[in-house]
Design a protein that fits this description.
Layout (H helix, E strand, L loop, with lengths): L1 H18 L2 H25 L3 H15 L7 H17 L15 H11 L7 H21 L3 H14 L4 H12 L6 H5 L2 H18 L4 H11 L1 H12 L17
């Protein structure tokens, strides 16, 4: 009976595969995977898992090149991940995301301006702009790079409209090299990350990207699903263990 049951399952799967265009089915899977990797990046950002974020970003970038990922939702999420990457690396002034040599947070500001349409709360958008401006200066001063702080402030003055009061305040802070000025401490890098996280929470609420996560959760909550996973882990194979795989680096 068990053999007959397995045979029926196999037959049904094969018939299903014949009735569905593989290319179309593959496109759906790619889109689910893209959303899952996007959600994973947001989670890594929230939990401040720097190394895991970079590893996940590499996978996300590879998937995002798939030609089936066309349209506004995928472009938005790709831009959001580019923005998050620059904020994550915001204190690493030696890392360049663009050819003109601008620092990560300045590059983040350029991308953030393109994401304005994704922010319903315009005050939130302006708050993040202000935090990016202040921290582009603050991070440079923290690293002892006064000239870079001046360059960053000049770039924002040339490319953004912000209050004269803020410009004067930041200019004085840079001139006096006040790394730990109370204003920089209040409009801090951690506050920038927290405010970006508020934006992400609102975006994900409006644009759920958790289909694969929900399906995986169902599997883990099902006795049959757990048995299936355990069976895959313990099944025999004629191939060597992963540790002995020829594709692994050898010393």
């Amino acid at each position: 009976m068990e053999g007959q049951s397995n045979s029926k399952v196999t037959t049904n799967v094969n018939n299903s595969e014949e009735n569905v265009d593989f290319t179309k089915a593959s496109s759906v899977v790619i889109k689910w995977t893209f959303d899952f990797m996007f959600l994973s990046l947001c989670r890594c950002f929230k939990e401040d898992k720097f190394d895991e974020f970079n590893e996940t970003l590499s996978t996300f970038e590879a998937i995002s090149l798939n030609p089936s990922l066309k349209g506004k939702p995928y472009y938005e999420k790709t831009m959001i991940c580019a923005f998050l990457s620059r904020v994550m690396h915001g204190k690493q002034l030696d890392i360049q995301f663009e050819d003109d040599g601008i620092m990560p947070l300045v590059s983040a500001a350029k991308i953030w301006s393109k994401l304005e349409c994704t922010v319903e709360d315009k005050s939130l958008f302006k708050d993040i702009v202000k935090l990016l401006i202040v921290q582009s200066v603050g991070v440079c001063l923290e690293k002892g790079q006064t000239s870079s702080a001046s360059t960053a402030l000049k770039w924002f003055k040339n490319n953004y409209e912000f209050s004269q009061n803020l410009g004067v305040k930041l200019s004085k802070i840079v001139a006096d090299m006040e790394t730990y000025h109370p204003f920089l401490m209040s409009v801090s890098f951690s506050r920038l990350r927290e405010t970006v996280q508020t934006y992400l929470d609102l975006y994900l609420k409006k644009n759920p990207s958790d289909y694969l996560l929900k399906e995986a959760t169902k599997v883990l909550q099902s006795p049959q699903g757990i048995e299936s996973l355990e069976g895959m882990e313990t099944s025999d194979s004629c191939l060597p263990d992963a540790a002995n795989s020829p594709t692994r680096d050898t010393e």
